[in-house]
Amino acid sequence: IYCRQVGEQATESLRAAAEQSTERYARYLRARADVHARLPLADFSGVFRTAIDFARDVQHLSGVPSHAVTAEIQSQARALMDSVVADVTARLQASIEKERWEQAEAPEELQAMADALTSNQVPRLAESELRRLCGAVASSGAAAADEAKAGAPASRELTLGGAGSFRPVKSCLLLLASAAHLLQHVASLQCLASQVSSALPALLKMYQKLAHQQVLMAGAMRPESAGLKSISFKHLGLSSQSLGIVTELLPHFKAILAAYLPETQRRLLGELDSAVIDYETQPQYIHAKFVPL
To answer: Could you say which DSSP state residue 192 is in?
Structure first.
């Protein structure tokens, strides 16, 4: 009887200690939420893994589930992703608004990204380098992107495996880098796969819609936009080339996300399928504009 009582008391003490430590850890995470929101992806991933490991170990040792810890760190991961999506969306919108629909050179890093994506792999470029490349492409176009890494050669075209070579515009290069950035978050934090499965198609659809407005609807001729004097054959052709890049990459985006999504959430990939329809119908409108030109 004594041994049983000691065992029960020990179990009760262990559970109490586990509950207390879980509560304190959750409070600690909440207190540092603002700090965690500003961490680079690699650093936040370390914080995330530590929290998940703690929750798993506590439950294994005491039987006490650490829902408060897992819920808090997953909430912070989603908040981090929301911040990243808002940043890349605003930057891409600004880039398209000022896009002159001229051919841009593809830096070596972006060609490496395209090679990885067409192999259904997440690009491995460090986040700091990726952010710098996005900033260079968005702010100063191809020349600044070429200088993002001293001595890095650039190509006038972007090669997509067996699909051949394409002539991108600046905003398309930014879209490619932004998509790679979102996929890097999924590769590091798999819990974000469902969130990115909605955010990435939305970003792609936004690009297609704004490209339609700027080129086919002559939005780029507005003085507050790119201020083009006219929409020429060249502008239509480069718009078609950039949209073609996205069209070729869409199946690869889908394959990469499918590798991280649980089977029960694969239906979310249907949003990418709807983006495919938008991109496949766009060339018809562009061709209609070619005829009078």
So the answer is: G
